[in-house]
UniProtKB/TrEMBL annotation, chains A, B:
Top-level taxon in the UniProt lineage: Bacteria
Family annotation (Gene3D superfamilies): HAD superfamily/HAD-like, Putative phosphatase, domain 2
Keywords: Hydrolase
Molecular function GO labels: hydrolase activity, acting on acid halide bonds, in C-halide compounds
Protein family: Belongs to the HAD-like hydrolase superfamily. S-2-haloalkanoic acid dehalogenase family.
Name of the protein this chain belongs to: Haloacid dehalogenase type II
Entries under InterPro entries matching the protein: 2-HAD, HAD-like_sf, HAD-SF_hydro_IA, HAD_sf, PGP-like_dom2, S-2-haloacid_dehalogenase
Length: 245, 245
């Protein structure tokens, strides 16, 4: 099947995927790692709140890099810095712990499990389209995560290749350029409306994938598509069907 | 098995591969395409000589980009320009032909077949190491070639990511950086001594893979390792064995 995106009137040839939240369930596995760490270190915290607080630092930590007031550093680096911030919020000095143990905890972002529909869905979409992650993760983090999660890609597009973070326009347009495609021939699939807004502004086709449990049972954001995205799906397998595979 | 490269005294964690000649047999398939084109267009040329002449433009066409006297353009673009050059050498004006047919002929570099040992060898090496192509091809060309040839990668590293061509040092070191590794933790595998010399100068580990038929039965160059490379193999499966997989 040939899928032509209404927003671009172009045939989609590649589908690129946001990763954290869209493909992998970061909250469950980060909470499990935080719980294990707390047990071993003899501290107490609510592991899901800890995971939420860590993730809450994600956007603020990228903001100065997007704005150009800080040079590019990788998401691996930001995750590690943000871990110290979260410990500080809990009134715990980072130097309470062996730095190696904090590094190990921080690397949990490289070992997340995919949502149940992802592996099958990507393989089906790959039968008809080029597929790759387009993530704010750096390439090495994406490679480690993809191996761990068993994701099969044609190409891996990390933020370090572009030197800034989504939703900066040059990330989306740079991805299309590396694929040798026009922006309108590339579809971003994401569980986050702001990411899709960035992609649409850069001329890409868009697909919303609902992940109503990304932030747990009380999630308030991104419960539904809030823009004129080309497709809306409940899962990657659902998206595969909508794309004809 | 843990493989420690003698040249770097570091454990190798990723093996990256030169592509044209090392993994895919460009001469046979380019000659076949040139033969088919000549038949359809009603011209006559020796298809293997045509393929050799086309490939002979490869290094000269990259030289001004390496030197910085020409801005980066992709290998897809150079292949197409070099095709016109080769036609000119034969005394045939490029405008003799429909440009679409020349574009189609030029895209043969995206549809080459791997040497017989490659698919199995890469899958075996991937069991213990990160694997990816590090090629002077652009990403889109590598993605198309890898899908056509059935090559499974963790990451795809095209020259467009680095904005210049091997053997410039920043290509090799940039690849290690994207993989989150030190240069000495990365091994380049290639059938070309000059590529391995560039990798070694950049601090990478090195493996020579002999491809004595790359240029046909009369090949004079790269018949054997001419530097102190860490490993010398007859095939990618042989390299897998030497790396313990």
């Amino acid at each position: 099947m040939i899928y032509v995106a209404p927003s671009t009137s172009q045939r989609v040839r590649a589908v690129i995927f946001d990763t954290f939240g869209t493909l992998v369930d970061w909250r469950t596995d980060v909470a499990a790692a935080a719980d294990e760490f707390a047990d071993a270190a003899g501290v107490e915290w609510d592991p899901r709140s800890f995971a939420d607080a860590w993730r809450a630092q994600y956007q603020p930590s990228m903001a100065p890099i997007r704005a150009g007031s800080r040079g590019y550093v990788t998401l691996d680096t930001l995750h590690r810095e943000n871990l110290d911030t979260v410990l500080g919020q809990l009134g715990i000095a980072a130097n309470t712990f062996d730095p190696k143990h904090l590094d190990e905890l921080s690397s949990v972002w490289r070992r997340l499990r995919p949502w149940a529909d992802v592996t099958e869905g990507l393989d089906r979409i790959r039968a008809g389209y080029l597929v790759g992650p387009l993530s704010n993760a750096n390439t090495a983090l994406l490679v480690a995560l993809s191996r761990h999660a068993g994701l099969r890609w044609d190409v891996v597009l990390g933020s370090d290749v572009f030197g800034t973070y989504k939703p900066e326009r040059r990330v989306y347009q740079g991805a299309a350029s590396l694929l040798g495609l026009e922006p309108g021939e590339v579809m971003l699939a994401a569980a986050h409306n702001d990411d899709l807004a960035g992609a649409a502004a850069a001329g890409l086709a868009t697909a919303f994938i609902a992940r109503p449990l990304e932030h747990g049972p009380d999630q308030q954001t991104d419960l539904s598509a809030d823009g004129p995205w080309d497709l809306t799906a409940d899962s990657v397998t659902d998206l595969a069907s909508l794309l004809g595979y």
